[in-house]
Amino acid sequence: MSTITMGVDLAKNLFSVCAVDASGHVQRWQDLGREAFALWLAQVPAGTVVAMEACSGAHHWARRCMEYGLQPRLMAAQFVTPFRKNRTAKNDRNDAEAIATAARQGNMRFVPVKSVEQQARLAWHRVREGYKTEGLEISNRLRGLLAEFGIVMAQGDRALRIALADLVGSGGVRTGESSNGYGRSLDTGSRPTGSPAQLGGPEVQLTIRVS
């Protein structure tokens, strides 16, 4: 097993790599592009510890490390910060060295590497939660706009849907564009909460008649 620990500061296009030996001394730094970094991983001796912050893309690169027989170590960013030598002069190389140093600590807490299936499931939940948040924001915005015309309704998404249906049915709110110039249109994008195949539902256009 290699006694060298590789600290990698991940990025979209340029990766900074710092090699630290068993005594904690920096052996070398490297700046690699995305494709060059992928090729570099294939050349690192098997068993080498490759440490990274658990940020965007980290689990992908950790899985690549495992394919080459390397030992990926993912850490939360807040656990790496105390090992940065100069916190006022933050740069990629300092970050890479801090990552390598942090990974050598015996009491460091590492993040388990997620499989592709685990990440896909997590991504779906994040998208779903995002739509729920957006739906609440749209509902609150619509309530505020309707309140300007004296239309107030009970709390809850179901109450809002029922009230809007009643307004449309009673003529208080008309669908489509105003033909007499006395209307104002409100466009609200419908955000479904079903499966990915169900996303992208129809838009709803409401026209409020004002005198």
TrEMBL record:
Enumerate the spans annotated as Transposase IS110-like N-terminal domain.
7-149
Q: Where is this region: Disordered?
A: 176-201
Q: Which GO terms describe its biological process?
A: DNA transposition
Q: Name one GO molecular function term.
A: transposase activity
Show the ranges annotated as biased composition (Polar residues): 176-196
Report the InterPro entries cross-referenced here: Transp_IS110-like_N, Transpos_IS110
UniProt protein name: Transposase IS116/IS110/IS902 family protein
Say which species the protein is native to. Answer: mine drainage metagenome
